[in-house]
Amino acid sequence: WSRDSGLQFRENGDLASGHCGATRIAESWFLTAAHCIDQGYDEIRFIAGTTNLRQTDSAQIFNADAAICHAGYLGQDTDMINDLALIHVPDSTLPAIRNVPIATYGAPDAVFSQENYAQLVMAGWGTTRYGALPSDQLLSAPLNLVSASPGIIVVESANGQGPCQGDSGGPLYVTEE
Question: How many C-beta atoms surround the C-beta of residue 114 within 10 A?
Answer without folding.
Answer: 13
